[in-house]
Amino acid sequence: MATKVIMPQLGESVVEGTVMQWLKHEGDQIAEFESLLEINTDKVNSEIPSPASGVLLKILVPEGETVSAGSTIAWIGQPGESLPEGAPDQTPRAEPARAAPSATSVPTPVAVGRDRELGFISPVVARLARDHNVDLHAVKGSGEGGRITKKDVLAYLGSTSSSTQPSGQAEPAAWETPGEGDLFRPTEMMFPTQPPAPVPQTPPVPPAVASQPPAAGNGRLVPHSQMRKRIAEHMLFSKNTAPHVTTVMEANLQQVVAHREANKPLFARDGVKLTYTAYFMAAAAAALRANPLVNSSWREDGVWIHDAVNIGMATSLGEEGLIVPVIQQADGLSLLGLARIIEDLAGRARGHRLQPDEVQGGTFTITNHGTAGSLFATPIINQPQCAILGVGAIQKRVVVLENDAIAVRPMVYLSLTFDHRILDGDSADRFLSKIVSILEKWS
């Protein structure tokens, strides 16, 4: 009897996966527990073993397609065996959504995260809804527990765009129909409460088509990887969701450098490499506990302050992109514990061995861009978090001490990019100055 291959749920909060590569083709023999395909969930790739021995009879989900956990993605059976009666020859698609609301209604923007009525809303779904003025309450979700997926929104848009206008009905006003430029318009323009004053009509300008190589010469196209697409979507969504503001301070790391030099041999005896990242992580955890508003997320009904301090650590994967493994309950760990977890997560991230749950649940993020020599930067917030800390390169610089003496000290620029809807300059500076104080007074 043929056996279903099911899209697994690789983590408590992971509800869908993308088929990255089929390691076997239809008709190939496969043994039980042999690797069958590679899937991607939140930029984490995992090889999925075959649930049975036999022949790969049918692949239902092609490479590059995303389906919800629990979906049947393939069938395995014996050579010449037919699929069970009534088995679909492809993965079911989202059902057509309900009729669209009237053109005069303006949908309320839905924030990323868990909505009391709609369930979990992913960044991709929220961005699509915002860009196309879709009321998500009118979209029928096909994901687990009725969750609305990207395909549901696209199916809804397809069904509404194919419907014709009733005879004699006026076309929607220009302010009701977002165009390509709306991605960068202020929120009040994207979700107006009343039409603005009419503007003079100008002939439409056809969009530029970049189908030919630039005039400067020949080149080559590098196709976007699945990870690069997700990074692009998430970063663009973040910049168009939260008003970004960055504040920068400088910290004297003389005490930290001395402490690290004195303790590196002790940590090495325990098999742990003591890096500066552990100090920044410890200082940020203590500052978050002292300033809980920074450890929060914006919601339409208020600011949600997280109880847990879960700090994400941006880790470069070279040209592939970056991934952000999360240190859970970072404020409850010692410097040794932090250093041990940082080394483990960074090593497994670069080796593509992270589990999907290990990149979930972050409440704050640190990016150490100084490892490449950068002095300071203005990083993008990792939605739906409130802020991200950028750590620059540690350099010896000439500084003037409090007694007006001139000395050479190991200095670092720290930049905090924050959501101005949640934090003001004073509260953001208070948090960043707390980090500076902890680092400069390290003992």
Automatic annotation (TrEMBL):
Residues 78-109, 159-183, 197-216 are annotated as: Disordered. Residues 2-77 form the Lipoyl-binding domain. Residues 120-157 form the Peripheral subunit-binding (PSBD) domain. Coiled coil: none annotated. This is Dihydrolipoamide acetyltransferase component of pyruvate dehydrogenase complex. Its cofactor is (R)-lipoate. Its EC number is 2.3.1.-. It comes from Longilinea arvoryzae. Residues 197-207 have a biased composition (Pro residues). InterPro entries: 2-oxoA_DH_lipoyl-BS, 2-oxoacid_DH_actylTfrase, 2-oxoacid_DH_E2_comp, Biotin_lipoyl, CAT-like_dom_sf, E3-bd_dom_sf, PSBD, Single_hybrid_motif.
